[in-house]
């Protein structure tokens, strides 16, 4: 988005990674993003960030909800309340916090893009909590599209498959697991963050002005089978 000329406000719970992202964005844009370390599960932090963003930038046009906790494969009977709360508070409640805080600042033509997952479309054994948050996010987003659409505010969802990111590398162990992920789609490779970003940029653009309530799968044509990371 920075390379397309957008003025950005970025938040993350990991400030070091956030600072690295700011430097990357600044290298391809004449403007420097406003950044702040925010835990999206904390309502007060989100409200402060959104209000400060509007004060600094003057307006808010598009919102990208991408904060999330990746899954750990756990049998249901071994799943703790703490694990449930951790994923739900970030993956689902966090989107609610950001959305609620942003809506009063949005005008017709604005839009949201929320990040779900193929796990919000296809269930996986041992990942019930994660799938719950991602299925729930799609339902929440479709409700947003219906409620905000009459106000000229669009909401869409991207559902990435296996993407080559540091966070995914942390949950995939061993060459065989990576190979299984590559072979799990028709293109025979992992996706890249840039390929997800391109779709997000389109959904924010004027070219997508009639796209509302859609779920765009970015998965290379993943096979219809239930798999788990091991």
TrEMBL record:
Pfam families documented for this protein: adh_short_C2
Gene3D superfamilies for this protein: NAD(P)-binding Rossmann-like Domain
GO MF, any single term: quinone binding
GO terms classed as biological process: fatty acid biosynthetic process
Keywords: NADP, Oxidoreductase
Family per record: Belongs to the short-chain dehydrogenases/reductases (SDR) family.
The protein, known as: NAD(P)-binding protein
């Amino acid at each position: 988005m920075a390379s397309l000329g957008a003025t950005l406000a970025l938040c993350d719970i990991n400030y070091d990674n956030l600072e690295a992202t700011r430097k990357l964005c600044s290298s391809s844009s004449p403007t420097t993003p406003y950044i702040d370390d925010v835990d999206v599960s904390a309502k007060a932090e989100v409200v402060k960030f959104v209000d400060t963003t509007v004060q600094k930038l003057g307006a808010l046009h598009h919102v990208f909800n991408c904060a999330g906790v990746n899954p750990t494969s756990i049998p249901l009977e071994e799943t703790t309340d703490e694990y449930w709360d951790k994923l739900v508070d970030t993956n689902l409640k966090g989107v609610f916090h950001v959305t609620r805080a942003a809506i009063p600042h949005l005008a017709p033509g604005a839009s949201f893009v929320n990040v779900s997952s193929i796990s919000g479309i296809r269930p996986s054994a041992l990942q019930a909590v994660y799938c719950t948050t991602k299925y729930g996010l799609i339902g929440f987003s479709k409700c947003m599209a219906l409620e905000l659409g009459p106000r000229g505010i669009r909401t869409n969802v991207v559902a990435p498959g296996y993407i080559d990111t540091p966070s995914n590398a942390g949950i995939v162990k061993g060459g065989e697991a990576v190979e299984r992920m590559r072979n799990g789609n028709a293109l025979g490779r992992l996706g890249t963050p840039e390929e997800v970003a391109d779709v997000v940029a389109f959904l924010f653009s004027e070219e997508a002005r009639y796209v509302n309530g859609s779920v765009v799968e970015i998965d290379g044509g993943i096979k219809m089978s239930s798999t788990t990371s091991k």
